[in-house]
Amino acid sequence: MASKYVYFFGGGKAEGRSEMKALLGGKGANLAEMTNAGLPVPAGFTITTECCADYYKVGKKWPAGLMEEVKKNLATLEKVSGKKFGGSKDPLLVSVRSGAAASMPGMMDTVLNLGLNPDSLKAIIAATGNERFGWDAYRRFIQMFGDVVMGCEHHDFEHALQGVKEKYGAKQDTDLTADQLKVVVEEYLKVVRKDTGEEFPTDPMDQLAKAIDAVFGSWNNPRAIKYRQLNDIRGLMGTAVNVQAMVYGNMGNDCGTGVAFTRDPSNGENKFYGEYLMNAQGEDVVAGIRTPQPISHLESVNKTIYDQLVGIRNKLEKHYKDMQDLEFTIEKGKLFMLQTRNGKRTIFAAVKMAVDMAREKLITPEEAVMRIDARQLNQLFAPIFSADDLAACEKSGNLLTKGLNASPGAACGQIAFNADEAEAMAKSGKKVVLVRIETSPEDIGGMAVAQGILTARGGMTSHAAVVARGMGTPCVAGAGDVLIDYSKDQMVISGKTFKKGDWISINGFTGNVYGVKIEPKPSEILQVLDGKLDPKKSDLFQDYSQLMAWTDQFRKLGVRTNSDTPNDTVRAVKFGAEGIGLTRTEHMFFEGDRIISFRRLILVAETVKKLRDEHNAKNLDELKAACASCGKCCTEALEAVKQYEQALAELLPLQKNDFVGIFKALEGRPATIRLLDPPLHEFLPHDDAGQKEMSEKMGVSVAAIKQTVEALHEFNPMLGHRGCRLGLTYPEVTYMQVTAIMEAAVEIKKAGLKVQPEIMIPLIGNVNELKNQRAVAEEAIAAVFAKANMNKTQIPYKIGTMIEVPRAAVTADEVAEVAEFFSFGTNDLTQMGCGFSRDDAGKFLGEYVKLGIYDYDPFEVLDQNGVGKLVQMACELGRKARPDIKLGICGEHGGEPMSVEFCHRTGLNYVSCSPFRVPVARLAAAQAAIKEKKAGKGTPAKTTAGKVSAQTKKGKIMAKKTAKKAPAKKVAKKAPAKKVAKKAPAKKVAKKAPAKKVAKKAPAKKVAKKAPAKKKVAKKAAKK
Amino acid sequence: MASKYVYFFGGGKAEGRSEMKALLGGKGANLAEMTNAGLPVPAGFTITTECCADYYKVGKKWPAGLMEEVKKNLATLEKVSGKKFGGSKDPLLVSVRSGAAASMPGMMDTVLNLGLNPDSLKAIIAATGNERFGWDAYRRFIQMFGDVVMGCEHHDFEHALQGVKEKYGAKQDTDLTADQLKVVVEEYLKVVRKDTGEEFPTDPMDQLAKAIDAVFGSWNNPRAIKYRQLNDIRGLMGTAVNVQAMVYGNMGNDCGTGVAFTRDPSNGENKFYGEYLMNAQGEDVVAGIRTPQPISHLESVNKTIYDQLVGIRNKLEKHYKDMQDLEFTIEKGKLFMLQTRNGKRTIFAAVKMAVDMAREKLITPEEAVMRIDARQLNQLFAPIFSADDLAACEKSGNLLTKGLNASPGAACGQIAFNADEAEAMAKSGKKVVLVRIETSPEDIGGMAVAQGILTARGGMTSHAAVVARGMGTPCVAGAGDVLIDYSKDQMVISGKTFKKGDWISINGFTGNVYGVKIEPKPSEILQVLDGKLDPKKSDLFQDYSQLMAWTDQFRKLGVRTNSDTPNDTVRAVKFGAEGIGLTRTEHMFFEGDRIISFRRLILVAETVKKLRDEHNAKNLDELKAACASCGKCCTEALEAVKQYEQALAELLPLQKNDFVGIFKALEGRPATIRLLDPPLHEFLPHDDAGQKEMSEKMGVSVAAIKQTVEALHEFNPMLGHRGCRLGLTYPEVTYMQVTAIMEAAVEIKKAGLKVQPEIMIPLIGNVNELKNQRAVAEEAIAAVFAKANMNKTQIPYKIGTMIEVPRAAVTADEVAEVAEFFSFGTNDLTQMGCGFSRDDAGKFLGEYVKLGIYDYDPFEVLDQNGVGKLVQMACELGRKARPDIKLGICGEHGGEPMSVEFCHRTGLNYVSCSPFRVPVARLAAAQAAIKEKKAGKGTPAKTTAGKVSAQTKKGKIMAKKTAKKAPAKKVAKKAPAKKVAKKAPAKKVAKKAPAKKVAKKAPAKKVAKKAPAKKKVAKKAAKK
């Protein structure tokens, strides 16, 4: 049990500080900080999150000492405010608010106007001279307290209120007079009696104690638990409770309330941004009954207050060095600050603000880099609608409605009302927007092919939203105005009817839905990268370039890309990739006619292998000689050998060409090329039609094909005949692939360009496999070199392996003797290490994360504690055996920020990820390095302490070198931020895309509104 | 390069010793040892195996200094023998023989009579006065040297010889006169000229150098490489070369040659055993042209020599302390010993000799235990034919032929000539003996259902032999007299015709084939264990019991059994199991009607789970309450819950009964019971008929069943929804199973018996899984205890886990916090650790072992270097977190001797294996402990040094305790060996089973005969 549970703030000073967020919650810590900074904050006190933890420890009871502390602080509060809590003369009323270290808006409980009872009500009326205000406050208090603390049914209150309104013919709550509100209070008190069998408490201290209990209790309500799960909030002690003197914005026209951001949260512009309403409560700003005014308008209404507010804005931004989200109230001409916190922002705003603030010297470049949420970064590259298109569309009345901006990006397509339809339409070449009331896992197929997804129900964390974000597909969710009638295959929005096949457009940045076809454009940054927009004309690109230049300056990890084609490679290089970490050569086998060649090879491979075994022949030449002389081999067998050779001969030049293209695109950067990996049956058709087609194309009987398909069937193909196991069985394929790689390299070299091929043998579990395949590869290389009259000094190749089989990880010292590099295939390492089939585990992994077995889906975020241990072990063993071994990762995790941080800590040389994630990886790598530096002056993480320090140093040097030649940095240098043209049209697109309305309410609030406990939550969210 | 390459022996002393086997080869070391022991050994010298290694190192050339050493030793040899090498007066002739540290009979090259040329030939004839002998020796030398050293075609010599024989009308080689042999020599010299273009060398030194070259070269001939692979001979430097003065057994009637064993190699009787022929060469003893005499007969022929031989026999056995396999030659009334080595023996003989020798104090009990090949031990339990039955059968002329004793055991069945037929017959309830010319992998199905396998072709290492031994199926291979005509579905043996369906019997111990039905009997030991034979009447059982008592005395590892039924458990306990290491509860789900109950559960499980999720219900009661009140759940949903509960209620008492039976059978020993493990789809029928049957039995539509089957389909079921993942998804199943276990335990306890249940949660990869399932289990246990008014002190249960997922191994410290024991599931750990699907890897694992990627199939012998590392890691981490954690293994490896040794070294507490392998494991565990003690005074292996010593001590204590109460020991004590009745009929069975003819030629020789290079090899095997 702690020695101090309560921290006071008020009267110009506070016991807390903003650094005490963990203990006081975000709200409490910032209220204290603002108080200390001399800002006008209503006095109050914060009960610590530790107290909440202790509350649960002792069985949901107040821990010893808490009551005394509360009473003492309440006394201080009375003293500072000069009022008496629930007193009968200008009484002190308080709000009781939750406030955890992480923002969980609307998830926990809040009670306002606490301390009201018949006596204090009279006093309030006397003090304010506003009877209606008094009774309105009282009825609100009863409803809120009754609901939150006493567990009354919300709808009973609604029902009672409705009855009174009907009785007096009042349309709005505001139409009710003071006397009518008295009736409401009477009815409310009846509701409390009926629902709880108790009287509504009149003792203020009793009210306070119960409210504090309720807030503590709300920490573990299912909604809050779920929210923390979904938003990945963990490791908190509990919620703090803030008890604060009430101030009122609705006491008259010299009162008001507002919400503001110190900069524009949608585009990042350095401009005071916000809205306010005079004679209103916070609730009213959000509720939308009255239209709030832009904050700048306040200047003309009350210049003193406005100037004071601007001063506070400046002070707070300087103080917190970040954009602040403020809440304020004006009570009888006096300004009170009720909250400040770092404001939520779009990625566009985040990038601009971070770079601007660094330019303003408000923060350092390191801090600027740390400001960006790496997981959000690639929203920068999502397709957008052009501002002109949107303007035209809105002008012509085609903006239909607005839902939640659930997954960023612009999409346009023809409507499909179910997943099968979507798949069918997509198959026939149509662009589809899938429109559903809600989506469910069965819709995955349709979601995958859709350009965008629109749902009528569900919040930011609904199935549609989560899956769409995962897929990178634009999604507008919970657009309540969309009325879908599946039976008629149509929907109605704002009176307009849309049929299946009609065109719509959705903007995942804003949540806007348009009833016409608007062609999405590539993002501004892509336009620049693709040479379609002058970089000087794009502020966004300038900011992005500056940011990325900084990341290259700070990061130690190299960043490569996974790419199988020249096009992808070009794109990745533009995104800053320093090479290829993984080229999957089998993808090339599927293209065009070559699948026929490869299938021919598969069909005869087994026969050839058997013959070779029979004749004890080391290679095809020996086999052919033996076959010819033994006399036993029938023509059919010799024909198989011929076909085998023919297939290899057909594939060689095709593969070579692929590699030439990739090497060219890399402009001298290294390329790790993985040899054939998947099981052979993946290349064969499994349905009758496909087999028949193959039979016709190849002149082989369907029966023979069926037989091969059956023979290649495996119970667990993941653990079957694949990877290097194929190369061991069919060494000619390895020989052909390596020949193709090296012949391509020779061609590049002869053209006077640099080339660095890295040949990667997949699925090694045992060093002997690698020895075997390395020997085949070296033989092929020697032959190519001999023919080209070249050697290793001209084409410095490497041979290495994937580490993806657990056995390879634990015997990595042996493997490293034969491997010049390791590339961690963390997808397979996760499959085998955790025993999860990626194709099957979906059935239970959701449950696993829900139950907290794994913190994250281990296929999305590297399981550092388990699979990560294997990676660390392999790194240590590998480096011990070969100190200069190159270590990288090429699994999906290579572009996932938390996993990138792990790779940094583990001392890998590089991460590799898909082209679009390259910037994400660069950013995450820089953040990891900065974090490490902050934590312990650049010493590596505990897990590998002392073992990788040499490497880390080396990494540093490498990182510096990289930074020097990183193209992005140059761009940034050439285009100083100040010169940016403010009116460039492209810029507008980016800036306008995230609509202003979003900024008004944090997305989470919106979630709350759509969540089952709808109104209740909303009400709580709208505190003050 | 070594400093000494050649070791001399002769003239009463030798430079070598028997301990120098690695350097001098077995033959060389023993020749030296015999020389030093004063035995009459022809003098000679041995070129070391190290020299062979150096020979290869310098590129198949003689290493520097070798020539000088050879010349020096040759000079000494001349001095000692008083003869001149290839000289023209009583010349010295030598044999040049290979001899590696491990016996590789017939695999490498040998040249006899070296030093002969026209001059020395004349001298030999002069010295012996035997012209025919001289010319015969010369023509043999030319043929052998021409073939082995010069690479002439063997059949060219045969052809030449045949020509001469035909010319002179000679039927046998022996019919040729000296003059005719001269012609043969001329023809042979022509062959050499023709095949090589060279003259046959006449310089003896030239001959010697070339012969030594040839022997070195033969170390790496494909035959020898293959033999080492097949017989698992590894780590040798090469072959030694023995150059030894020739002695001749065929110079006249005062000459002779023989082979003997110091004890009977087939039954172990302490009796001089062997055969000899006067005026003959070694070849003649083997060739079968003349019938050899039993060794005892020599006494009457030449008592002096016989007595000398018996003296040598006694001396050698005392010296080597093991049964010796001797070769001797009598030259002109003088005895020469040519070889001694430890003799090959049947397991019956091995057990008897080991125990006898220990009783005779010739060896210690430790040594006796080390003498038995643990891999052979369970041949003791294979079915046998009774001696009476065999005698009757042989008397009536029904012993048809004899093949190789390829896989031990007696089998009797109706003939099937192909695998499909065999399967069909077995399906219709018939007992089948599969008869094939040779078997191939396609025959596996038929081999698996057959009682026994008989093949006409193929040696001890043929497909049939290897597979049959693996399956434990009796097999007689390579019975050349069996003439099979597939087209007629019949075979002819010795003129008798057998049709498909006719009865035959085969004896895998002897290779005998009988043309009648002989009912196999259980092995003698099983008869005793099953109470059908008085232990006092079985010498074999007495010896076995004594041996096993010793193993229990020496071993530190506990031995448990894998058993799912009371019957198996009873058997295992009789075999010495100290508990159950693995009961697979799912096996019980398949029995009788319960599969219906379980299928019912599977059919509704998903619906129930969905409902539970929807209602956020923690258990079924909560769910039912929620369903009842929510009003949304349809009757169908509620029906699903009802069915789910019903299925669980049906299964509970059935499972409980299973456990009661097993607990009873264990008589208080601990039982590790694994909860449900396999994926659910394994329990459902996948074919239409099965689904229809299920639909009818359960009153569910076929469509619904099909849907569930489809929904449960997995791409990689090995890595899918199974093990604890099922328990996490369907906690009620865990609850039911644990309830059944504990209710059974309560019942046993209430009956006044001891019970130690150990609940094992399978497939843990993450400690959180275990926490979850442990909580469910503890809840169930608490409920059972509460109902029974009992507690943990009365029923000391444990909860632990399998370690079979690599992730669990590397996070074993975390897992151990929640697990009281680990049981290594090395089957799955191998699958996931190596990335091999057990069901699929067969396709390439053979190739893998052949290529030397893995030394053994990792599913047969634990992959110590890889999977073993995970095991060691888990042990260390586990013990660190929980020092008293119990560690065991329950994979198939638990009964494999090399793997058992690994488990011992790693400091496990116990191994667990199938009942029949329990004695094997006990023996292997004892051998491991003795080996360790010998190596380093009982310190544990390097890998876990210092970490498990505390454990090891504990293990010792445990082992002693176990030994004290081991029933087998008691039996041994009660029946002192001396009292054993010699004429007990049961004993005869065991003794006679391994036929005497086997002893005559080591099995490997037989292999050589049937191998492609048939005659050539045979000739070499028959040296002297």
How would you sum up this structure, described in words?
2 copies of one chain form a homodimer. By secondary structure, chain A is of the alpha/beta class. Chain A contains 43 helices and 30 strands. Chain A has an 8-stranded mixed sheet with strand order 12-22-21-14-15-16-17-13. Chain A has an 8-stranded parallel beta barrel with strand order 23-24-25-26-27-28-29-30, surrounded by 8 helices. In chain A, strand 18 (482-485) and strand 19 form a beta hairpin. In chain A, helix 20 (539-554) crosses helix 39 (967-974) and helix 42 (1003-1010) packs antiparallel against helix 43 (1014-1021). Chain A is elongated, with a radius of gyration of 33 Å. The two termini of chain A are 32 Å apart. The model of chain A is unreliable at 938-1024 (pLDDT under 50).
Blueprint of the fold:
Two copies of one chain form a homodimer.
Chain A: E1 6-10, E2 13-14, H1 21-36, E3 44-47, H2 49-57, H3 66-81, E4 94-100, E5 110-114, H4 118-128, H5 131-148, H6 154-168, H7 178-196, H8 204-218, H9 222-230, E6 239-245, E7 256-261, E8 273-278, H10 282-287, E9 293-294, H11 298-301, H12 303-320, E10 324-331, E11 334-342, H13 347-359, H14 365-371, H15 387-395, E12 399-402, E13 404-407, E14 410-416, H16 419-427, E15 432-436, H17 444-449, E16 452-455, H18 463-471, E17 475-477, E18 482-485, E19 490-493, E20 496-499, E21 503-507, E22 512-514, H19 524-529, H20 539-554, E23 558-562, H21 566-574, E24 580-584, H22 586-589, H23 594-615, H24 620-630, H25 635-666, E25 670-674, H26 688-698, H27 702-712, H28 724-729, H29 731-750, E26 756-761, H30 767-788, E27 798-803, H31 806-810, H32 812-816, E28 821-824, H33 826-834, H34 842-850, H35 867-881, E29 886-889, H36 897-906, E30 910-913, H37 918-936, H38 949-965, H39 967-974, H40 985-992, H41 996-1000, H42 1003-1010, H43 1014-1021
Parallel strand pairs in A: 14-15, 15-16, 16-17, 23-24, 23-30, 24-25, 25-26, 26-27, 27-28, 28-29, 29-30
Antiparallel strand pairs in A: 1-2, 1-3, 3-6, 4-5, 4-6, 7-8, 7-10, 8-9, 10-11, 12-22, 13-17, 14-21, 18-19, 19-20, 21-22
Helix pairs in contact in A: 4-5, 5-7, 6-7, 13-14, 13-20, 14-20, 20-37, 20-38, 20-39, 21-25, 23-25, 25-29, 29-30, 36-37, 42-43
